[in-house]
Amino acid sequence: MILAAFIGPGTVATAAKAGASFGFKLLWALFFSMLVCTLLQEAVMRICFCTELTLGQALKKSLYQSKGSFFIQFILGIAI
C-alpha cells in the first residue's frame, strides 16, 4: 500500500532530476525515507497480525466504534 502511494512516473522523473542536480547531497533523504517507510510497513504488519484483519477492515472497525468517526472519515476522504 505504501509502495503504491509513492512510486509513479512523476516520482521517478523528480528523483532523477534531483539526483542529476544535487548528486549525493540528498542521500540523507533516501535513508530517512527508507527508515520511515520500514517503520510504517512494520506497524501495518503488527496491526494485521494482531487483529487478523486486513488494514482496511481494521481501520473500518476502529473508525466505526469511535464517536467522532464521521469527522475522521471526512478528513481521510479529503486527504485521499
Give me some keywords for this one.
80 residues, mainly alpha, 5 helices, elongated
Any overview of this molecule?
The chain has about 80 residues and is mainly α. The chain contains 5 helices and no strands. The longest helix has 25 residues, at about 25-50. It is elongated and about 50 Å long. The protein starts with a helix and ends with a helix.
Order of helices and strands: HHHHH
Unreliable stretches (pLDDT < 50, length at least 5) are none
Work out the oligomeric state of the chains in this entry.
single chain
Distance between the termini: 13 Å
Shape: elongated
Provide mean pLDDT, rounded: 78
Q: How large a portion of the residues is in β-strands, by DSSP E? A: under 5%
Helix content: over 70%
Annotation field: number of helices = 5
Write a compact overview of the structure shown:
It is built from five helices and no strands. With 80 residues, the chain is an all-alpha fold. The chain is elongated, with a radius of gyration of 17 Å.
Produce the secondary structure layout.
Elements: H1 2-6, H2 9-22, H3 27-51, H4 55-65, H5 69-79
